[in-house]
Amino acid sequence: MTERTLSIIKPDGVARGLIGEVVKRFESAGIRIVAMKMVHMTRTQAEGFYAVHRERPFFDSLTTFMSSGPAVVMVLEGDNVIARNRELMGATNFKDAAEGTIRRDFATDIEKNVVHGSDAPETAAFEIAYFFNQFEIVGG
Ligand code: RTP
Ligand code: MG
């Protein structure tokens, strides 16, 4: 089933010059990028985006990190793309991530793990709408 997901190249990935690497992996996998822009989130925007993690011990650190510099936000489209993107990303902790995944190859830290990807259709819908309106998504 064709679906959409939100991908973010996090501030560590942008600062380290990994935009091209990440985009190349999506393109090589046949995943279509149907929206893309750079954002430098405020702390409040990062808190809203990660509101599901509000009670987690890492929430303060995560939202500080996510608002620390520019990020690239993208809408990806394709068959089963939510799960396929998560597969390309690898496990949250790069030490547990499979070989050849983005996090295994590039992440340096459990928090600074280069990419975000929506984890379910409901979160994808919320996360896409958090950054994009319908006119910013091509072929919609
Ligand atoms: P994401 O939401 O960013 O795609 O990552 P995920 O689903 O693999 O992981 P999640 O559990 O949703 O956690 C969101 C982000 O919080 C940071 N984190 N830090 N210090 C820690 O123990 C810890 N755990 C998670 C990571 O940046 C993680 O991607
Ligand atoms: Mg998550």
Automatic annotation (TrEMBL):
E.C. no: 2.7.4.6
Keywords per UniProt: ATP-binding, Cytoplasm, Kinase, Magnesium, Metal-binding, Nucleotide metabolism, Nucleotide-binding, Phosphoprotein, Transferase
One protein family per Pfam: NDK
Positions of the Nucleoside diphosphate kinase-like domain: 2-139
Record GO biological process: CTP biosynthetic process; GTP biosynthetic process; UTP biosynthetic process
Chief location bin: cytoplasm
Classification via CDD domains: NDPk_I
Subcellular location(s) of the protein: Cytoplasm
Cross-referenced InterPro entries: NDK-like_dom, NDK-like_dom_sf, Nucleoside_diP_kinase, Nucleoside_diP_kinase_AS
A GO CC term attached to the entry: cytoplasm
Annotated SMART domains: NDK
Positions contributing to ATP binding: K10, F58, R86, T92, R103, N113
Active-site residues, as the UniProt record annotates them: H116 (pros-phosphohistidine intermediate)
Gene3D superfamilies: Nucleoside diphosphate kinase-like domain
Sequence similarity: Belongs to the NDK family.
NCBIfam families: PRK00668.1
Self-association state and partner proteins as the record states: Homotetramer.
PANTHER family noted in UniProt: NUCLEOSIDE DIPHOSPHATE KINASE (PTHR11349)
Protein's UniProt name: Nucleoside diphosphate kinase
Species per Swiss-Prot/TrEMBL record: Desulfococcus multivorans DSM 2059
